[in-house]
Specification:
Layout lengths: L2 H35 L8 E11 L4 E11 L7 E11 L2 H12 L2 E3 L5 E4 L8 H10 L8 E5 L3 H6 L1 E2 L5 H9 L13 H8 L6 E10 L5 E2 L2 E2 L3 E12 L5 E3 L1 H11 L6 E2 L8 E16 L2 E16 L11 H28 L6 H9 L12 E11 L3
Parallel strand pairs: 1-4, 1-5, 5-6, 6-8, 7-11, 15-16
Antiparallel strand pairs: 1-2, 2-3, 8-11, 9-10, 11-12, 13-14, 14-15
Helix pairs in contact: 7-8
Length: 387
């Protein structure tokens, strides 16, 4: 390389490093400036709401918030506290403002992952319920939507034996699929999408509180007031009055309209054998032909156990297990037919049949035509070998 080339290279190198350090300097100055002029609230000034409960009367809302507060000072140990506050307001924002005033902290919904709603709440249009929570209070669109026939505040305040806060248990069961008993997560985004579709209906997990028969033991002795949160049923939401789907119907309906559905199947054969299967996967397929919809549901399961076999050695390929799988398929088919009968009785299309017809017919589909759609279904249950 001659002297001219080396000189040009040296100048380009110097210019590159000058530009690099200039960019770094500008970035540092911007960070210092905005760090001094932006009000960054500390954790001790905020109440992070991890669960929100809402009830409604004719003229007001009852809002309950399960919040995490941090107590302590600089240089000391900070302690997390879980508290439930309840206030009434003509609007949701008024209720949240009153909770903020009572706590002396700024309430934030940006970390709220669970909504627990009373059936009375669904008399309001979905947009009027969720829009202010999302736009004004930063509620995540991926928050889980659940319901309860009890007081939402009682669900939020319930002490459980496995978690420090009830909402963590609900998240584990629905978001992480660790025990929802065949029910699936319905997010705020899912809820609005289904309610604004042609079917205009959605089923969401219903939470029940059960008394713990035997209280947990610890080093300090027996605990008191520990509850169980049970999610085996669904609440169906539509334009009409909400109604409940019992356990078997809720599981079948969820398998047909949702993905990533787990849980268990427990068929009992007429000859007395009782089997237990764990659901590995549920693959639904709905086919519309004119005003007829046929649903195909393929369920993959693993064998957990079979009882009352008189000592017979049981494997996934055993005749008894295959008969149990066929029985489980028949029970799911019967549950889906019962779901369809309930949907007609309540005029609530929670199986989303109108959505399927609309995909084929488009705008020519009549409005509110659920009773004019013929429904049929077939279910297969396949037992997978343990891998």
């Amino acid at each position: 390389m001659d002297k001219t080339s080396r000189a040009v290279a040296a100048r380009l190198k110097d210019r590159f490093f000058r530009t690099k350090w200039l960019v770094v300097l500008v970035a540092v100055l911007l960070l210092v400036f905005f760090g001094r002029t932006t009000n960054i609230r500390s954790l001790t000034e905020s109440a992070l709401v991890i669960g929100l409960g809402i009830e409604r009367t004719e003229d007001s809302f009852t809002v309950s918030a399960l919040a995490v507060t941090v107590s302590g000072g600089a240089g000391g140990d900070n302690t997390q506290n879980y508290v439930v506050y309840t206030e009434k307001g003509a609007t949701l924002s008024e209720g949240l403002d009153k909770i903020s005033q009572k706590m002396g902290l700024i309430v934030s919904l940006s970390h709220c992952n669970v909504l627990v709603l009373s059936p009375s709440v669904f008399s309001a249009p979905p947009a009027a319920l969720f829009d202010p929570l999302i736009s004004s209070h930063s509620l995540p669109e991926q928050a889980a939507v659940t319901a309860t026939e009890l007081s939402p505040a009682d669900v939020l305040a319930a002490r459980t034996g496995t978690t420090v806060a009830s909402t963590y248990l609900i998240q584990s069961a629905l978001i992480q699929n660790l025990g929802g008993d065949g029910l699936a997560l319905v997010t705020v985004k899912d809820f609005l999408a289904h309610m604004l579709s042609r079917s205009g209906s959605v089923n969401i997990p219903l939470i029940d509180i059960v008394e713990q028969t035997h209280q947990p033991e610890s080093q300090e002795g027996e605990a008191q007031g520990v509850k169980q949160l049970v999610m085996e049923r669904d609440l169906v939401i539509s334009d009409g009055e909400p109604f409940v789907l019992e356990k078997d119907l809720a599981q079948a309906a969820t398998m047909l309209v949702r993905s990533k559905v787990y849980g268990r199947l427990s068929p009992v054969l007429p000859t007395g054998e009782a089997a237990e299967f764990r659901v590995l996967d549920a693959s639904p397929k709905l086919n519309a032909n004119g005003m007829s919809v046929h649903a195909e549901l393929k369920v993959s399961v693993s064998l957990l156990e079979v009882q009352n076999t008189d000592g017979e050695k049981v494997t996934p390929s055993s005749e008894t297990v295959q008969r149990a799988a066929e029985e489980a398929a028949r029970e799911l088919e019967n549950s889906l037919r019962a779901c369809h009968a309930l949907s007609l009785a309540h005029d609530a299309d929670f199986l989303h049949l109108q959505n399927e017809v609309y995909k084929k017919t488009g705008y020519t589909m009549p409005t509110d035509c659920l009773d004019g759609i013929t429904f049929s279904c077939s279910v297969t249950v396949e037992v997978k070998e343990a891998g």
